[in-house]
Amino acid sequence: MPRLFPKNIIFVDAVKLTVVAIFGRNFQYHLGYALSGGGAKGFAHLGAFKVFESYGLKPDIIAGTSAGALAGVFYADGFTPDEIGELFKKSELRKFIEFSIPKSGFFKSTGVAKFLKDNLRSSTFEELKIPFKVVATDWKNAKTVIFSEGRSLVDAVVASCSVPLVFNPIYIDGIPYVDGGLMKNFPVSVIREECKYVMGVNVSLITPLAEKNNLRNSAERIFKLMSGSNTLIDRSLCDILVEATEAQRYFMFDLNNIDEIREIGYECAVAALGEEKSLDIIRRCHRYYQLEEKVKQRINKLKRVAL
């Protein structure tokens, strides 16, 4: 299904084609954000967003896995980082989960689905303000699946967050899906070929085992080792990489330290974007924005003359 943009398609295409001709690029998007999974550590994405905005950056596309899909869908829907944080701060963990008789998971994710339906302004991928890709794992066929169109928006995000054994799989068109982090926790490669530049935010890193060894810590470490092992290639594909190392001390279902985790993301992004390589990319993005705006103005003028 083709993406339906609210703007005049011919006008938008003319702008893009003109900018492409001048810049000599063969990419569908100029700047993309890739957001990793990581449970509550995903609140670090919100801090990173604020830093990106302070540099005047705006993504042309977003790809998210698990917690990255949750943060990404709200950002793609036009919410500010502060608005996203406030939505979650008003909620409690018990509102997101519902206990079920264990078959394939201890909890149902109906609360997550309700939270999304109650708060998102868009109900389909096409209605989002920014193109968005969600990564989930086909539980039956053991493969990564990318959702980016149609009315499966909420189900796709919920599936991407459904940690196996913790949550039941989410069925979409008869196929069971679970957390995308199992096979693609850091979705840089999902948009790499489409983007001139990719900024990646990785909030799930493999760190030394905590001294306090219990069932909860062991379960989280098992999942982190599985998901972390598939991020190595994707880390190397980033043009700018932000990693929230200090956020690793927080439990994956911790909703009590949103501000602290968000601040870690902010500080890590400040450090990453302050590097000379990052600053050079940012300057290139701004040159692109300036040219894009000039082309828009010129085409608008020609349209008025034609009318």
For this entry, give a set of tags.
307 residues, alpha/beta, eight-stranded mixed β-sheet, three-stranded mixed β-sheet, 13 helices, globular, disordered N terminus
Model description:
With 307 residues, the protein is an alpha/beta fold. It contains 13 helices and 11 strands. The strands form 2 sheets. Strands 1, 2, 5, 6, 8, 9, 10 and 11 form an 8-stranded mixed β-sheet that branches. A 3-stranded mixed β-sheet has the order 3-4-7. The longest helix is centred in the C-terminal third of the chain and has 31 residues, at 276-306. Mean pLDDT is 84; it is low at 1-10 and 98-102.
Task: State the share of residues found in helices, binned by percent.
Answer: 40-55%
C-alpha Rg (nearest Å): 20 Å
Low-confidence stretches at least 5 residues in length (pLDDT < 50)?
Answer: 1-10, 98-102
How many beta-strand elements? Answer: 11
Structural class: alpha/beta
Q: Give the overall shape, derived from the CA principal axes.
A: globular
Instruction: Please give the count of helices.
Output: 13
Mean pLDDT: 84
State the order of secondary-structure elements, H for helix, E for strand: HEHEHHHEEHEEHEEEHHEHHEHH
Task: Report the sheet-strand fraction.
Answer: 15-25%
Largest sheet: 8 strands, mixed
Distance between the termini: 32 Å
SSE layout and pairing:
Elements (H helix, E strand, L loop, with lengths): L8 H15 L5 E7 L8 H11 L6 E5 L1 H10 L4 H9 L3 H4 L1 E2 L5 E4 L1 H10 L12 E7 L4 E5 L5 H8 L4 E3 L2 E3 L2 E5 L1 H4 L3 H5 L2 E8 L12 H14 L3 H5 L3 E4 L14 H16 L2 H31 L1
Parallel strand pairs: 1-2, 1-10, 2-5, 4-7, 10-11
Antiparallel strand pairs: 3-4, 5-6, 5-9, 8-9
